[in-house]
């Protein structure tokens, strides 16, 4: 395969300008100056774990009143909805940086097993919502005794 030499032409200045802009963006990103794009939405981070008897979901919900969170189970889907309300007290304040996220969220999670929806328990403590979802009896792993001849 032959290399084709780069021919400089009228579009070279536009290409150089684009390259310089990308370099500035990357420099700002790696220096921490560039804020992430949130697109007006945020979702709490979750961990989903499973034992023989239940599924546990832990969601980070710091600064959210548990009264502002709703938990639904429909089939094998868990939905967590809520709202983190923005502080409105801004009198005599000049903000230099705002990184905390506010607003409503809805997070639906496919569960790894069918659960007993009427026995689900949820507890909020220290900014973490813990949801324990007992598995249905037919979903629980059962040990089978092996008979020797």
Written overview of the protein:
With 149 residues, the chain is of the alpha+beta class. It has a domain at 46-87 and 101-139: Immunoglobulin-like (Sandwich). The chain has one helix spanning 12-31; strands spanning 46-50, 54-60, 69-74, 77-84, 103-110, 121-125, 128-134. The protein has a 4-stranded antiparallel beta sheet with strand order 1-2-7-6, with no helix packed on it. A 3-stranded antiparallel beta sheet has the order 3-4-5, with no helix packed on it. A hairpin with a 2-residue loop joins strand 3 and strand 4. The chain is flat, with a radius of gyration of 26 Å. The protein starts with 11 loop residues before the first helix and ends in a 15-residue tail after the last strand. The model is unreliable at 35-39 (pLDDT under 50).
Structural class: alpha+beta
Say what the CATH topology of the domain at 46-87 and 101-139 is. Immunoglobulin-like
What is the CATH domain class of the domain at 46-87 and 101-139? Mainly Beta
Counting DSSP H or I runs of 4 or more residues, the number of helices is: 1
Tell how many strands the DSSP assignment holds.
7
Helix content: 10-25%
Strand order of the largest sheet: 1-2-7-6
- How far the N terminus sits from the C terminus, by CA atoms, comes to 70 Å
């Amino acid at each position: 395969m032959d290399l084709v030499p780069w021919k400089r032409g009228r579009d070279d200045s536009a290409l150089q300008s684009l390259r310089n802009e990308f370099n500035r963006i990357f420099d700002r990103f790696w220096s921490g100056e560039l804020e992430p794009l949130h697109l007006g939405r945020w979702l709490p981070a979750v961990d989903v774990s499973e034992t023989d008897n239940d599924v546990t979901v832990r969601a980070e919900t710091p600064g959210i009143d548990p009264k502002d969170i709703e938990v639904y189970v429909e089939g094998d889907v868990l939905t967590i909805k809520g709202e983190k309300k923005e502080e409105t007290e801004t009198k005599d304040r000049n903000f230099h940086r705002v990184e905390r996220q506010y607003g409503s969220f809805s997070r639906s999670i496919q569960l790894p097993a069918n659960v007993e929806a009427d026995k689900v328990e949820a507890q909020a403590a220290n900014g973490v919502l813990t949801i324990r979802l007992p598995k249905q009896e037919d979903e629980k792993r059962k040990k089978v005794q092996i008979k020797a001849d």
